[in-house]
Amino acid sequence: RGAGGVPRGVVSEHGGLHSATCIAYEPVQRLLAVGVDAGVKIIGGDGVEVLLATRHHVEPARCVEFMPGVGRVMRVSVDNGIDVFDLHSQTCLASTRWPIDVTCACGMKDSPFVMVGESTGRVAVAAVQHGADGDGILAPRSYSIAHPD
Q1: How far apart are alpha carbons 39 and 132 in whole angstroms?
Q2: pTM for the whole thing?
Q3: What pLDDT is stored for residue 80 in this prediction?
Q4: Mean residue pLDDT across the chain
Q5: DSSP strand E in the chain: where?
Q6: CA angle, corner 78, sides to 75 and 82, nearest 5?
Q7: What angle (nearest 5°) sits at the alpha carbon of residue 85, between those of residues 22 and 49?
């Protein structure tokens, strides 16, 4: 027994998530995505624990979001790097440095499309595409939602 009659035991673990800046929860699969400077740490109720590492945007995460219905998670870094990871293969499908400050992003249900909120008030639409060099990119589409002036 410890101080004050409280039973001794592991209460928390320190280490692996020292750079956590944001989280997202996926209730169907019971997964927690934690945005860290090296990528996205996925933690599941069934003992699942994996780091989906970014190769290009090693900086703190601004937000992480699950993309509903497609088995993907997206991470936006503080320097506007956007990475899209596949949960099943545990690989990065697309990695792009967005040209305008990103304030938020979300995946559209059951599709490869992503809505990207920009500091200008515009909401851009992009899609995950295979790049010519084998690496995927998040390609902007010609349509968007503009902020009314």
Answers
A1: 24
A2: 0.82
A3: 94
A4: 84
A5: 22-26, 31-36, 39-44, 49-53, 61-67, 72-77, 81-86, 91-97, 102-107, 113-118, 123-130, 136-145
A6: 35
A7: 65
